Structures are given as structure tokens and as C-alpha cells.
Amino acid sequence: MSIYTGPVFEMARKQFVVIADHLEIPEDERDRLLYPKRAVTVSVPVHRDDGTTAVYQGYRVQHHLTMGPTKGGTRFSANLDIGEVAALAIWMSWKCALVGLPYGGAKGGVTVDPPSLSLRELEGLSRRYMQEMIPFVGPHTDVMAPDMGTNEQVMAWFMDTYSAYLGHTVTEIVTGKPVAAGGTVGRREATGRGVVHLAMRAAELLQINPSGARAIVQGFGNVGAVAAAELAARGVKIVGVSDHTACLYDARGLPMEALQKHVAARKVLAGFSAEAAFDPGALLAQPCEFLVPAALERVIDADMAKRLNCRILAEGANGPTTPEADLVLDGRRDEIFLIPDILCNAGGVVVSYFEWVQDLQQLFWEEAEVNQRLRQILDRAFNAMMARVGREHISHRTAAMAAGVEKVFAAKKIRGLFP
Ligand code: GLU
């Protein structure tokens, strides 16, 4: 079982132990629930523009096949390893079960720094990665989606490559595609919209008026940028934002429209304002009502958890908070309302599910229907989490994860162990 190593996998394992203890899952059943069913590693050769050939390491981890196909994103990132991919696959399982999707979790990716590739090289890498994965994926086996470092264009290349191999168009092989290539309206915005919908549910419970409240958003990719825009649309003042190129803070509020225009043109925050430049290590600790980490794993450790100065912590990223930080946040329950990642960012996979269903049926929905069904699913999971917190006097994360883990456990139990 030791191919899964590293701090991110260790974090997923520790979280699982907390939940397994809470649910009193027998020791001998735990490995079957935690360790991935399948892990595929591939070498992905690519022709570089300079005429040389480079080989990249690619992965796909399918956590469990108990409830339907596996589902999850594809990450192109410089430091990716199999332990991180496995942890992300495990979180996808708890996330899908929590919100009631008929999927196990998966995740995949390539260890590559996407800005180091030209567009032609990126296409070559994307197509060859999918081609290498064809024996292991399928609309009823494993359905990919975007994640960090990939986007709609990459999903279109995946779909095209798979379809070319089969000899006919198979839109349901990946989700997060452009609408012009079998995608659904509302998928691009879904994760950020879900984050803000749930942040508003929390604000309502805490009687915080969003108008004039302050938000800090870490990460300005597909999740962070949409979340910031949705918060601003509700009158929230965005006082801090950051990405891997810049960190900006202004207690009076940042000019969101100008910021969005800048990012649309330049793709990154760098170069927007020297005046608002801020220490990235201090951003998360600034006072605000809404804090949205929407970038990397493990950015909130125990020390940062002590320094947080927010009222609502809405986890847009996967795994932004370490188990050690969770212990600190447990002690600060009355000060900080946590919306745990597997619920907070589930909007993406929920609308991916809608996309898959629409592709399978070739019957497409209006955006209002997508958004209304998205809110309904998130509300149901949020209400169930809050009810469980009240009943069992546990943290929000424990309540959400317990709901996911127990569903997978129940499905495995009732199906039995073959032979
Ligand atoms: N990568 C996203 C996540 O971590 C979306 C996965 C999907 O849509 O399948 O939830």
C-alpha cells in the first residue's frame, strides 16, 4: 500500500481515520474503503517545438468502482505525484457520495508546468495523455473533467481524441467541455457559484449582511475568479485577492471590474497594481467576513488557523486545511464557520454530472434549470450537514465527510465482497 506517499496523501489518510473512528468502522474494513482500487501511470511523449522529444509522467487514480463510474478532474501541475492524485481521488469519492451522485472518485494528471508549453505542445500532451488512458476510461468506467492547469479546450481535445479512436463522437467521455462541443451551460461557473451559494447560506445563519461585508479570495483561476465576481455581485467588498503571480490587498475594496478586465487580457493578476501589492503570507490572516481559499492544498496549517480573522471559511480548493489546522478550528467553532471543501466546491462535479446526463440523453437543459438543480442539491447537503452537527456535536468537516464515507461503506457492505 506504500506507493501512496507524501503530505497530501497523509492528510487524506488522517482525515479518514477521524471519520472511521467517529463512524466506528471496524479496523479490517478500513483499508478497503481508503485505498484506491486502481492507479495507472503512463509515460506521455511529446514533440517539443524545438524538434526534441520530451516525456512526461501521467497518472489516473480510480478510488472505488462501487457506485458507478469514477469521476474527477485532470490536473496539469509541476509538482504532481501519485500520492497527491490518490488523495484528490479519495476526496472526490466522499464529495460525490455526500451530494448523492452515482460516482466513485477519481483524479488524474500530468507532472508538467503548463506555462512551459506552447499551445501546440499542450495539445500534443493532452491528446497523448488521453490516448494512453483509453484502455482505462469510458463513459461508464471513468469520466474526466478539468482541474488545476486544464480547461475547456483541454477537455475538447480529450473528447476529440477518444472519439477519433472510437470512430464516432462520444461527448459523455469527459465533462467541462465547451458548450460548442457537447458541454453544458453553467459548468464553467458552477464551482464558484456553488461556493458563493453556500457562503450565503452560512451568512444567513450568522445574520451577516453580504452588502458591505469583506471577502478575501486566494486563487484567481476558474474557482476563485468566479467566486469573487459572484460575491461582488451580492455587494460584498473584495478586499484581497491573490494568484501565483501577485497578491493584492486594499481595505477599501479592490476595483473588481478593472481587475476582471486585466485578468481577461493578461491571464494573471501580475501587473495590475503596485500600490495594492501585499505579503501573500499575511493575506489569509487579514480581517474579513468571507475567506475563500481557492488555490492549493495545505495553505491553512495549525499556525495559520490560529491567525485566521474571518467569520466564514469557504473552502473552494480541495484540501486547503490540514488535519492539525482542523483541531485549531474545532476550538474556534464559535468564531469561524467552516464550509468544508467536499461540500463547498462540489458545485463543479454536480454540474459535471448534469453534463454527463445531458450527453447520455442528448437532451440539453436551460441554464436556469442547471442552476436551480445545483442549488437544490447543495442545499440538501448543507442542511443535512447542519442537522448532523446539531445531533452529534461534531465539526462541520466531520459531519460532511461522515455522510460521504458512510454512503460508500454502506454500498460496499450491501454489494458484498467477491468471491
Ligand atoms: N476537478 C473538480 C473537483 O475537484 C471537478 C471534478 C469534476 O467535475 O468531475 O471537484
Describe this structure in words.
The chain has 419 residues and is α/β, with parallel strands linked by helices. 48% of the residues lie in helices and 16% in strands. It has helices at 7-23, 27-34, 82-99, 119-133, 152-166, 187-206, 222-233, 256-266, 280-283, 302-307, 323-331, 341-344, 347-361, 367-392, 396-415; strands at 38-47, 53-62, 70-77, 104-111, 142-146, 214-218, 237-242, 247-249, 288-293, 310-314, 337-339. The chain has a 6-stranded mixed beta sheet. A 5-stranded mixed beta sheet has the order 1-2-4-3-5. The longest helix has 26 residues, at 367-392. The protein starts with 6 loop residues before the first helix and ends with a helix. It binds glutamic acid.
Assess the beta-strand content as a share of residues: 15-25%
> What is the fourth-level CATH superfamily of the largest domain?
Leucine Dehydrogenase, chain A, domain 1
Helicity, as a percent range = 40-55%
Helix and strand succession? Answer: HHEEEHEHEHHEHEEHHEHEHEHHHH
Total of helices: 15
The low-confidence parts are: none
Q: Cα distance, first to last residue? A: 22 Å
| Largest sheet features | 6 strands, mixed
Radius of gyration based on Cα positions: 21 Å
Bound molecules: glutamic acid
Can you tell me the CATH topology of the largest domain?
Rossmann fold
Instruction: Please give the CATH architecture of the largest domain.
Output: 3-Layer(aba) Sandwich
Question: Residue-averaged pLDDT, rounded?
Answer: 97
Give the strand line-up of the largest sheet: 8-7-6-9-10-11
What gross morphology would you assign?
A: globular
Alpha-beta content class:
alpha/beta
CATH class designation of the largest domain: Alpha Beta
**Overall tally of domains:** 2
